[in-house]
Amino acid sequence: MTEPTPADYTGPRRILSGIQASGALHLGNYLGALKRFVALQDTAPTFVFVADMHAITVWQDPAVLTAQTREIAAAYLASGLDPKRSVIFPQSAVRAHAELAWIFNCVARLGWLDRMTQFKEKSGKHKERSSVGLYTYPVLQAADILVYKATEVPTGEDQKQHLELTRDIAAKFNNDFGVPGFFPQPEPLIQGPAPRVMSLRDGAAKMSKSDPSDQSRINLMDDADAIAAKVKKAKTDPEPLPETLEGLEARPEAKNLVAIYAALADLSREQVLAQFAGQGFGAFKPKLAELAVESLAPVTAEMRRLMAAPDEIDRVLRDGAERAAQIADPIVAETKRIVGFWR
Question: Is 230 an active-site residue?
Fold first, then answer.
């Protein structure tokens, strides 16, 4: 198989990403995703969805799923995404995602999916009890991206393997059906001082909605007192902050807190160390807590306002779904024609 080069695709630049509708959003989502979405929305057409179809790869309470879909949409809006500039919608409201996913299920190969490390991590020792949806999750993810012919995907390091699968599926489809350049080879956008925010309790583990300890993360709906308390209790070491990044390499918790400060303040980690070098965490943590509260308070307040006005959120989601379908439906229709489906 000869893989097309990105130059083979001549369509418009488009950006796409989304957050799964499961669990409360936290600081890692804000720094690693939401702030980046906002910064990108003026650079190219941007599609930001709520991944409710991905959420049900494990069982979800239906009422909770609906509420979490609205909460994520509220977080998008509160963080600065403008529904006039970005297309904001629930994944399940655009049926083209599911249609293209089935076609891609027939393009992807079992060996490719067997290599996906996230399935191994999430299924653990009892993979036979996992849903088929959890196994084919990366194929649906490929459909999410390629149904808009997105060329760039803001993503974390943990999703790079899935994006590589998307590129493989695009290349195989283009090659198998003799349509070079039909689907693009999307590129990851991994940038910023804190693209991967770690747990406040374990600097080697990613900050996660699924962590049983609420002390491991700062939730976007936490109030100022809760944020300050969590930062104060964050795991650290007894050493003062070093002068250089090299001095953080064997200190994962210190490295994480410096990265969080840098991302919130829009500074480099080097600039943060220049400001706090030689100081202990007794001095650094209060400054970090103050900065976190100052940065998140407007987002939290607007999220709460929106959550109290669900009709406002629903209007944004309905409009976004209609606009997304206007792009996705013709792409799926052309894909079906290429495959040979009866019309």
Answer: no
- The string of pLDDT tens digits covering residues 34-60 is 999 999 999 999 999 999 999 999 999
Is 209 assigned a catalytic role?
Answer: yes
Integer Cα distance of 205 and 335 in angstroms: 40
Paired residues of 151 in beta bridges: none
pTM over 0.70: yes
Q: What is the pLDDT of residues 97-128, one digit of tens each?
A: 999 999 999 999 999 998 887 777 776 667 77
Active-site choice (35, 84, 120, 122): 122
Distance CA 65, CA 75 (A): 15
φ/ψ (deg, to 5) at 239: -80, 150
Catalytic, 122? Answer yes
DSSP secondary structure, 19-56, as one string? EESSS--BHHHIIIIIHHHHHHTTTS-EEEEEEHHHHT
